[in-house]
Amino acid sequence: MVGQKQIIPEQHLKTRSLFRWLGPVLIFIGVVCMIVAFIDFFTADFFREPRFFGLFFVAMPFLFVGISLSGLGYGGTVA
Q: Under a CB-based contact definition with an 8 Å cutoff, are residues 36 and 55 in contact?
């Protein structure tokens, strides 16, 4: 489409803006959960089990969805 103006629908721009906002927020939540789980795991006593070990399993979906949404939101700009 050389020489023609490319028209992007308004709904696409709104969705892309939502993905660009929501993706990093979910990544941040996932990273915080992962850090809390790592700190709890490595500072646990020998006779005490980690209390927040389950946050590893909470953080993984947050990170996956956040990275996916960020990839969709910023993919066109990067390409």
A: yes
Q: Is residue 3 part of a domain?
A: no
- Total number of domains constituting the chain: 1
The DSSP line for 52-78 is TTTHHHHHHHHHHHHHHHHHHHHHHHH
The Cα–Cα gap between 54 and 34 comes to 10
Its domain, for residue 32, covers 26-74
Is residue 4 in a domain? no
Positions of the chain with pLDDT under 70: 1-5, 79
- At 9-21, the pLDDT tens digits run 788 788 888 999 9
Could you tell me which of 3, 11, 57 has the C-alpha nearest to residue 30? 57
Instruction: Please say whether the beta carbons of 79 and 32 come within 8 A.
Output: no
